[in-house]
Structures are given as structure tokens and as C-alpha cells.
């Protein structure tokens, strides 16, 4: 690392790792409940494990985003952070919020509103933390007087995430209206501003890892952001089809959702082209794996599998089945989990005492086990979902009867989830294997982008 | 395209989409009241929505197809099952499904009677929201074939995984549902519980309402005076009243087997009646 204050990123990453591990525990627990019977029916019922599983996902990914931003902004703006103290307070408050929320869910203390289960006090803490974070980053950039495009896109994404959380704080009498605005937070986060954050990290990593020209990368970054929002904003409509809204949301949702993979395809091509064109070889090939992997898995999971069931006449049959779980798992993993893991893998050699050859075989095992495990889980959910649609909605079999007929897919789900969990365990072990060590390196020899030279 | 042009593209594309989205949102607000019957959102409906949230129902079930896919979608449940069934179910779900056989069970929630009433009112409001007719009606091709096949083999139907074993102290409606799936010949061979799904016999969805309309109409020639009586009559003497339609009867005789009066005990018929009377 080049700036002393970048060391705060390590602690964010460490918290993210712990929460990631916990998320997988609750995920595995939920998966086994699909097979049943459930001996924990009255201790940890499915609704509790599922709530914790999804909430931990959101919290750890956001922790990773914040850590990665604290790593990236000093480098991009070429300055120390405005306040490391504020950053540590923010992490403490955030972790406290996360831990108490999870404990609360164990006792069913929550709003019971899917993905927005956080009780009001926790929601307020989330807003406060976001404001602390944006203030710290904003002041850092202001102090430096240098804002790069990658940074600008990233900060824009983070600021908009905070703004779009507001509809989640309001109360609606009408359940349909409440669903309508719930997606302003959830959809516009994951298919809008989080994409912007991902694109910002992706551009940063590609510039660093492949050494391609910053001007070219930043130009395409704008094109990708334009495509994300053009398709993503109106693509929100695909959540509206069946909840009691006017009919015109169907064709609009179908059309713009069909455009959504464009931005993801552009991102994958962009990553691949950067890798091909980059003249300078970066020693951290593991980070390159995660970076390119994220772009490709996002295109597959978020783009193509999303497209597979967002067309209204298809969605009519697949909506509310395990097909959605298929898409959700691979989309979240490819687009968000993997980009955070890429940022961590890239930053880690600078934050720990690991030897210069960072490409430990363990890291590659973690990568391939996770990718193949998640691919298998996607297939398990997908095939279970197809069976479910056929038995339940075409044959007219009852819900529980249909679920019994697709048990073999849940077995496959547990198997592939175990492979995935092994990959996660290896990644976490590899993370904590080396002691944190924060040496400031003055020159830029470890990077393909020979930064602080010149104003590029 | 240079960097400046690509930046303009990003801003303009985002702007156009955002303006269109906000515009459509404003327009949707002018239609929400009508599409969701907002005038029917009584304090009970709101209280029922709070019950729905309080017990975290959405993290197993789905409503409008949104939720956790671990348990059935409840968008139209209030139209498919009558209040009596829903009440009995919510008081103790374990009386209706078996964990060993179905592998999943809803934990008993210990809802108060008021909470149950409010939740049913809320689900009733949900079921009437104009949501483009989702979920889709199943296109039945083979109907109750699964159960018929099971009955045709040596294996008794009670061994089939589709049917929950019951004990005599269960709710009569649960016992009736069990009989519906296990009586000989099995009812599900000809009757579906899905609205609009006609097999050899009429769908049982909406049974209670139809029975009330039938006995009130001047064409009714049977002897029943109430809904329960009509259902009982239809089971034990199918030809007493013929459901209109060439698929169901010919020359004044119903196609339904008339063997149930002997095959079933008085008590079993009562249970079937109790179950079918809940089919709204």
C-alpha cells in the first residue's frame, strides 16, 4: 500500500469475511430444510435462517464495498484519508448494527418485509453510517482536489444507494404500494447503483492489473454506466407485473429487462479486452481471476439467467418459484460477492505479511471450488424450478406434492452448496493465514499502473 | 466516441430512463386505488397486514409471488379456501399436513383469534387485487392421474406420499381432505380443487357458493335445504341434482359413481361435507 490510512480497509475486509462465513452457515442450514423434515422447526425455523442468510449477504457485501472504497480512494486521489478515526467508528457502529440485527432476527425481531427486515433503529444506524462514510470519502477527495472517473462512478453509486434507501424507511398503508417502493430500494440497488459500484471497482482493477490506458477504460466505463441505467431503471418494471399495477408495466418491463444483459455483456467484453490488450503483466494473477470471473459470472447469472425469465409471458409461469432463487444466487454472487473478493485479493498483499508471490494454490482452490459450487447450485435451483413450474402450474399438482417430486434437486443443491462452502472456507482461511502488516511502499513497482507519476 | 461524448451518453440515457420511470410512477398512483380496491382497506385489513409482517410470513410463503418459495403462494388462498378452513388451519397447521410425509411443516404460530380474523381479512383483500390474473390457472392434462395410478397398484393409497396419515382426533375438515384424496374411487380422479380446472367432473373450487346458488334456484329438484345438505346429497345420491353439461351426466343419470353411500360411513360423509363446504 502507498498510503498509511489504507490500512483501515483490512479491518473492513476482516469483518466482511466473518460475516460471509456466517452467511454461508445459515445458507446451508436453509438448504437442508428444503429436504426436511426439520428438527429445528421451533428453534430456528426456515423464515429465520432465510432472513439471516439474505441480511448477512447485504451487510457483508456492503462492508466489503466500504473497505474496498477506503482502499481505492487514497490511491486514486493520491492522498491519505480525511479521517481514519471516523472510519473506525463507522466500522464499529456498522458491526454493532449487523450483530444486533442478526441476534434480533433469531427472536423474530424484525419488520417481516422481505429484504428490508431491519427494525427502524437499525435502519437509522444504517443511514448514519452511510452518511459518515460518504462524508469521509467526500472530504478526502475534496482535500486532494483530484477525482478520477472510476472514483466518480464509485462515489456516485454509493451516494445513490444511500438516497434510494429512503423509500425503505417510509410506511405504506397499501400493500401493493409498499411493494412498489420496496423495489425502488432493492431493484435500483442491485440492478442500478450497485452495478455502478461494481463497474467502478472493475475499472480500477483492470487499470491496475492489466495496465491498459486509463483514458480508454474510463470512456467505456461511461458507456457501461449509461447502459446500466437506461435498461435498469425501467427494468424495475419486471418486479411489478403481478402485484396490482397498470398493465403497461408488462411490455415496458419485458423490453427494458431484455436490454439489461447489454451492460453486463459490455462489462465482460471490456474486462476480457483489457486483459488481452494489457501489456504489463501484474504478478497478482489470482486477483485477475476474480476480476474477470466476476465480469463473466455476472453476465451469466445476472444477465442471461435474468433474461431467461423476465419476459412477461414466461415470467407468468416462473414467477414465485425456485427459478427466481436460481437467478438471485448466481446474480448476487457473480456481480457483487466476486467483485468484493477481487478487491480483497488485490489489496491483500499490501495489507498483510504475505510473501510477494501472492498466488497461493489455496487461493486458486478457493476460486475454482466457489465458482463450480455456485454453478452447480444454480443448476440445482434451476432444474428444481423447472420441475416445480411443470408439476404445479401445468399439471395442477398441489405445492407440497410438487415439492416432494423434486427432492432430488434439493439433494444436488446441498451437495453443490457444500462444494461452494468449502471454497468459501478456504478463502477465509487464506485471508486470516497471514498477519496484518501495514508497510507503506513509496514506489509503484508492485503495480502495472505506475501511478503517482504524471497526471494521467 | 471520445470520453466527453460517452459521458454525455451516460447522463442522457440515465436522464431519459429516470424521467420516464418517475412519470409512469405518477400515473400508476392515479390507478392504484382502483386496481387494489383501496376503499376496502379497512383497519382490519391493515391489522392483518401487520400480522403478516409480525410473524415474518413472507420469509417462507410468497404473496404476489414475492417471498421465499419455501411454502405455497397465498395470493388467492382466500378465494380457494373458505374462512372455516383457514381458521382451523392457522390454529394448528400440524393437523393438516404431516412432516414425515410432506417433509415440511408450518410451525404453529400461536396466533390470537383476532389476529387470525384480521389476517384472513387481509388475505381476502389481497386475493381481490387486480394483478393480471396471476398465478396462472394450471393447464390440466392428466389431472388426478397420480392418485389414480397409486390406487390401481397393490399399494394402498394411504401409503402414497401424497396423502397425510390422519388420526381420528384430527379436525373433520382435515379428515375430509384426506378422504377426498383416498376414498375409493378417489375423488381427485375426476374433481380438481383448482378453479376453472374441469376434469371428468366439475372443479370443487367455489363449491360452497355454487351449492348455495343451486338450492336457491327454482330449477333445483333435490331435497336439500342448505349447503351442507346439498353436498351430502351430491355424494350419496349424485343423480338427485345434475350439474348442467354433457360431460357430467346423460339421460338424467350423473356420471359420478353412486357407490359412496355404501362405501363410506355416515361419519366419513360428514367429514367430506365439512371439507367441501370450505371450498369457497
UniProtKB/TrEMBL annotation, chain A:
Transmembrane segments: 9-32, 52-74, 86-108, 120-141, 153-172, 184-207, 219-242, 248-274, 286-311, 331-351, 363-386, 406-429
Record-level Gene Ontology MF annotations: cytochrome-c oxidase activity; heme binding
Keyword Transmembrane assigned: yes
UniProt key word Protein transport: no
Biological process, per Gene Ontology: aerobic respiration; electron transport coupled proton transport; respiratory electron transport chain
GO CC field: membrane
SUPFAM superfamilies linked: Cytochrome c oxidase subunit I-like
Record's protein name: Nitric-oxide reductase large subunit
Sorted UniProt keywords: Electron transport, Membrane, Respiratory chain, Transmembrane, Transmembrane helix, Transport
Domain Cytochrome oxidase subunit I profile stretches: 1-456
Highest taxon listed in the record's lineage: Bacteria
From TrEMBL, chain B:
Keyword Transmembrane: yes
Any GO molecular function: heme binding
InterPro entries noted in UniProt: Cyt_c-like_dom, Cyt_c-like_dom_sf, Cytochrome_c550/c551-like
Signal peptide: none
The keyword Metal-binding is assigned to this record: yes
Keyword field: Electron transport, Heme, Iron, Membrane, Metal-binding, Transmembrane, Transmembrane helix, Transport
Membrane-spanning ranges: 7-26
One Pfam family from the record: Cytochrom_C
Boundaries of every Cytochrome c domain copy: 43-127, 171-280
Name used for this protein in its record: Cytochrome c
Lineage: Bacteria, Pseudomonadati, Pseudomonadota, Gammaproteobacteria, Lysobacterales
Amino acid at each position: 500500500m502507498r498510503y498509511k490510512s489504507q490500512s483501515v480497509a483490512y479491518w473492513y475486509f476482516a469483518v466482511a469475511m466473518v460475516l460471509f462465513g456466517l452467511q454461508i452457515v445459515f445458507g446451508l442450514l436453509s438448504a437442508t430444510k428444503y429436504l426436511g423434515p426439520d428438527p429445528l422447526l421451533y428453534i430456528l425455523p426456515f423464515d429465520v435462517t432465510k432472513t439471516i442468510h439474505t441480511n448477512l449477504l447485504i451487510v457483508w457485501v456492503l462492508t466489503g464495498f466500504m473497505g474496498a472504497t477506503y482502499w481505492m480512494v487514497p490511491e486514486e486521489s493520491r492522498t491519505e484519508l480525511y479521517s481514519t478515526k471516523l472510519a473506525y467508528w463507522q466500522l464499529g457502529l456498522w458491526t454493532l448494527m449487523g450483530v444486533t440485527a442478526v441476534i434480533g432476527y433469531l427472536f423474530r425481531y424484525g419488520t417481516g418485509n422481505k429484504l428490508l427486515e431491519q427494525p427502524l433503529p437499525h435502519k437509522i444506524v444504517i443511514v448514519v453510517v452511510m452518511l459518515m462514510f460518504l462524508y469521509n470519502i467526500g472530504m478526502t477527495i475534496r482535500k486532494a482536489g483530484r477525482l478520477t472517473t472510476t472514483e466518480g462512478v464509485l462515489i456516485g453509486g454509493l451516494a445513490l444507494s444511500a438516497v434510494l434507501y429512503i423509500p425503505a424507511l417510509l410506511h405504506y398503508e397499501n400493500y401493493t404500494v409498499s411493494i412498489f417502493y420496496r423495489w425502488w430500494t432493492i431493484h435500483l440497488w442491485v440492478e442500478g447503483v450497485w452495478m455502478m459500484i461494481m463497474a467502478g471497482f472493475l475499472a480500477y482493477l483492470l487499470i491496475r492489473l492489466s495496465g491498459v490506458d486509463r483514458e480508454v477504460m474510463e470512456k467505456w466505463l461511461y458507456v457501461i454506466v449509461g447502459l446500466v441505467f437506461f435498461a435498469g431503471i425501467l427494468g424495475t418494471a419486471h418486479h411489478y407485473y403481478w402485484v396490482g399495477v397498470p398493465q403497461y408495466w408488462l411490455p415496458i418491463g419485458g423490453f427494458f429487462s431484455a436490454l439489461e444483459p447489454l451492460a453486463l455483456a459490455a462489462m465482460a467484453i471490456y474486462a476480457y479486452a483489457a486483459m488481452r490488450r494489457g501489456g504489463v503483466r501484474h504478478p497478482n494473477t489470482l486477483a485477475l481471476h476474480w476480476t474477470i470471473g466476476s465480469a463473466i459470472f455476472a453476465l451469466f447469472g445476472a444477465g442471461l439467467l435474468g433474461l431467461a425469465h423476465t419476459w412477461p409471458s414466461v415470467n407468468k409461469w416462473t414467477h414465485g418459484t425456485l427459478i427466481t432463487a436460481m437467478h438471485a444466487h448466481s446474480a448476487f454472487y457473480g456481480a457483487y460477492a466476486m467483485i468484493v473478493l477481487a478487491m480483497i485479493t488485490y489489496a491483500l498483499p499490501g495489507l498483510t505479511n504475505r510473501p510477494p508471490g501472492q498466488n497461493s494454490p489455496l487461493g486458486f482452490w478457493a476460486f475454482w471450488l466457489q465458482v463450480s459450487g455456485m454453478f452447480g447450485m444454480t443448476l440445482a435451483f434451476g432444474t428444481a424450478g423447472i420441475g416445480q413450474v411443470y408439476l404445479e402450474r401445468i399439471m395442477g399438482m398441489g405445492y407440497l406434492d410438487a415439492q416432494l417430486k423434486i427432492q432430488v434437486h434439493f439433494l444436488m443443491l446441498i451437495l453443490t452448496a457444500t462444494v461452494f462452502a468449502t471454497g468459501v472456507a478456504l478463502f477465509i482461511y487464506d485471508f486470516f493465514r497471514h498477519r496484518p502488516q501495514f508497510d507503506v511502499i513509496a514506489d509503484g513497482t508492485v503495480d502495472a499502473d505506475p501511478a503517482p507519476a504524471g497526471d494521467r | 466516441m471520445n470520453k466527453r461524448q460517452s459521458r454525455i451518453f451516460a447522463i442522457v440515457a440515465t436522464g431519459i430512463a429516470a424521467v420516464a420511470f418517475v412519470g409512469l410512477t405518477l400515473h400508476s398512483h392515479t390507478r392504484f386505488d382502483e386496481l387494489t380496491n383501496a376503499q376496502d382497506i379497512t383497519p382490519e385489513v391493515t391489522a392483518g397486514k401487520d400480522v403478516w409482517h409480525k410473524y415474518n410470513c413472507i420469509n417462507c410463503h410468497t404473496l404476489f409471488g414475492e417471498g421465499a418459495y419455501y411454502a405455497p403462494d397465498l395470493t388467492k388462498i382466500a378465494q380457494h379456501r373458505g374462512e372455516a378452513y383457514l381458521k382451523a388451519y392457522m390454529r394448528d397447521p400440524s393437523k393438516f399436513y404431516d412432516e414425515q410425509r410432506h417433509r415440511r411443516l408450518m410451525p404453529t404460530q400461536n396466533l390470537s383469534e383476532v389476529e387470525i380474523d384480521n389476517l384472513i381479512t387481509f388475505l381476502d383483500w389481497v386475493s381481490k387485487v387486480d394483478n393480471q390474473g396471476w398465478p396462472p390457472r394450471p393447464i390440466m392434462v392428466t389431472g388426478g392421474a397420480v392418485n389414480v395410478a397409486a390406487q390401481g397398484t397393490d399399494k394402498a393409497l394411504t401409503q402414497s406420499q401424497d396423502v397425510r396419515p390422519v388420526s381420528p382426533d384430527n379436525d373433520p375438515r382435515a379428515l375430509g381432505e384426506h378422504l377426498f384424496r383416498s376414498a375409493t374411487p378417489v375423488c381427485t380422479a375426476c374433481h380438481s380443487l383448482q378453479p376453472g380446472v374441469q376434469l371428468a367432473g366439475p372443479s370443487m373450487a367455489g363449491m360452497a357458493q355454487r351449492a348455495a346458488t343451486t338450492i336457491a334456484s327454482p330449477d333445483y329438484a333435490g331435497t336439500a335445504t342448505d349447503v351442507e345438505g346439498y353436498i351430502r346429497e351430491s355424494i350419496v345420491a349424485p343423480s338427485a341434482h345434475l350439474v348442467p353439461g354433457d360431460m357430467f351426466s346423460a339421460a338424467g343419470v350423473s356420471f359420478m359413481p353412486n357407490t359412496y353411500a355404501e362405501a363410506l360411513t355416515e361419519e366419513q360423509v360428514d367429514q367430506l361435507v365439512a371439507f367441501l363446504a370450505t371450498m369457497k
